[in-house]
Amino acid sequence: MIDRADRGKLLFLGSIAVSLVLVLAYLAAGGSDYAPAETQDPCEPREWRDPEGIQQIAEQFSLSAMDGAACKLGVSRETLARALATEESRQRFLERYDIGDAELARAIRAGLLRAVGDAEEAGALSPFLAVPLRQAIGSIPLDEAIELVNDARSLFEGGGSIVGLGETGLGILEGFLGE
């Protein structure tokens, strides 16, 4: 019969044995050479999937805009996305990369222009809307540009509009048209 002290020792030794087996299995499965997947180069064109709705079109537009801006700034899309999440993260990003608001605005606008071109090429955006959007993007305020990069649904949702733009998109278009 095993007494209490021996039972504790056996449990302890058993847990060590199980731990060693787990570590060996991890190593045998290739766990010693794990490397995270590389991020996609934001300067490389991103092929648009066949969008099946507003949400997918807006998502692809945002990814394309983020890629274009990240390419212009020489950072990954993921780095830029984290930077644009909050005002504080944006300020840290600007300081870390020694970038001013004007340079960030130019990059964001370049990203939006790339996304308009990609959306037009994919058939997700009418050329009749692409032309004035390109013009409007040139003067869009930085905060609105960041909002569109982060969530482009307002460009594509109906919102009661006959042209298929939401309130933000209509505001941009109306600002361009002077209405």
Kindly describe this structure.
The protein has 179 residues and is mostly helical. It is elongated, with a radius of gyration of 25 Å. It contains nine helices and no strands. α2 crosses α3 (77-83) and α5 (101-121) packs antiparallel against α6 (127-137). The chain folds into two domains: 4-33; 54-177, no CATH class.
Quick summary of this structure?
By secondary structure, this protein is mainly alpha-helical. It is 66% helix and 0% strand.
What order do the helices and strands come in, and which of them pair?
Layout: H1 4-28, H2 54-73, H3 77-83, H4 87-96, H5 101-121, H6 127-137, H7 142-150, H8 153-156, H9 167-177
Helix pairs in contact: 2-3, 2-5, 5-6, 5-7, 6-9
H/E series, N to C? HHHHHHHHH
> Class by helix and strand content?
mainly alpha
Arithmetic mean of pLDDT = 80
Q: How many discrete structural domains?
A: 2
Distance between the termini: 93 Å
- Treating each run of at least 4 consecutive H or I residues as one helix, how many helices? 9
What percent of residues are in strands? under 5%
Biggest sheet: strands, sense, closure? none
Question: How many β-strands, per DSSP?
Answer: 0
Share of helix, binned = 55-70%
Cα radius of gyration in angstroms: 25 Å
Spans of at least 5 consecutive residues with low confidence: 159-166, 173-179
